[in-house]
Amino acid sequence: MGLSLIAVITIFILAVFVGLEVISKVPQTLHTPLMSATNAIHGVILVGGILVLAGAESPATTVLGVAAVLFGTLNVVGGYVVTDRMLEMFKVRKRGGDK
Amino acid sequence: MSGLFGSGTLALTEAAVKPWIDTGYLAAAVCFILAMRLMNSPVTARRGNWLSMAGMAIALGVTFLAPGFDRQDYALILGVVAVGSVLGAWSGRRVQMTAMPQMVAILNGLGGGAVALVALVEFLHRWRTGIVALDIQTVATVLSTIIGSISFSGSMIAFAKLQELLPGRPLAFKGQQVFNLCVAVVIIAVGGGLLFFDPGSLPGFMVLLSASLVLGITGVLPIGGADMPVVISLLNSFTGTAAGLAGFVLMNTALLIGGGLVGASGLILTLLMCAAMNRSLANVLFGAVGAAVAGGGKSALAGKQAKSYSPEDAAILMSNADRVVIVPGYGMAVAQAQHQVKELADRLAARGIDVKYAIHPVAGRMPGHMNVLLAEADVPYDQLYELEQVNPLMPETDVALVIGANDVVNPAARYDKASPIFGMPILDVDKCRTVLVSKRSMAAGFAGVENELFLADNTYMVFGNAKTTVSKISQALESY
Lengths: 99, 480
Hints:
By secondary structure, chain A is mainly alpha-helical.
């Protein structure tokens, strides 16, 4: 659908490099919330789950697709909720950015 | 293309709608990247997470524009998403702060499972239609199946260990590493066979799937509970990578970018955690720390008895101190004692005593776990000190109060090469004038190692549940 193989590979590799760069500066205090936050982001697989479920053409693939969507939704929603709960506690105080 | 959406007949709508979908995915990707940037500071981190949520909502929203959906699809998908959202939000709200590590483990496992399922459905689709060839989709399908399955089963084991459904100590059987190697060889051989000889082999695919699930289980079982954060972080990276690979399968930019970002950042985070423990990733994964319980150091301790103090004794000692360092550990977390600890610290501070919290990088079950718990109890940031900041202050400290921490204050890490925790930077509480240790019993720590600190001449044990002990000390302090 329009994307050439090399374009897809380019996108993926650039995303990997951005991932490497964007994370290296995070203070240790935020490691647990960050792990949880990135955990929620890979819940984007839900997009894949939705697409395969919509394209499912047999009872077996429908069941598997439903499971994929359910797992993906739990990953996304649960991930964001727990991350937000953790970050809620980091209210702004005097020393603010603890680098 | 995967062929999911049929072809030809829908070409027109597809052409009309595709730019919108792609633009939506681009917006989502920008949100994810900016969100991670905002995570660099505690001040902006929460906003970052909200931005990430917005990105996810956009990505999911535009996906529904994709051609090939009929009314039943919408109903079914929205129904499942609704059920999942309610379940996810409910459990996410309900889970205790102390149980966060296992919660993240289970959510990560579900993500990995979702990737494997997507790959499986794609494979079945291609298998039925007979369009299987050695192309990037097939390669990506095989790889995302392997990585997603390992992440799923491995995360479930990590969850079971942290939840103490399984013992935290490393579970190793004879020849385990050889067994794991064999399973890995099977995966590589079957995976290679699938790709180069018979890309449409259903039995082959099932063997691949099962072997990967087995490797996740037997790979994580021999890793000690203390190393679970590193494992979860690595598996988080695995799920990200697998989701990115699923992006190749479905030619979907949201998956490619979201997955790629998490795969890479998860790996960096994992290495940072290993660095905090002064260990290599290989050592964490294959070292089986704690399998042989307390090899070194034991003989020197033979015959020594730990001295114990009542909470009242502890209170008197602390009331006479000028400088106190509090070292919270997992014991404080399980006892939910952070509020009592904060109360005690406030009472000490009210008497003009200087109170600092010493936070070891791997205290608790995850890096930053202690910071999260203490933040919950409203402990100000400026009282929290990291290892490098607080260690030079230890010799001038009158009392170190160690609450449910063990391995992170074990002096054996400095010199005992036989100790599994050798080389890990520790908090030098043994250099303080007096050390008080609140602990339930003399049992070994999470790494399964004896701790000579408890037997040192300047150490006094205050036995009991951390919450009760700390509040008793706190009460006693009021009456002096």
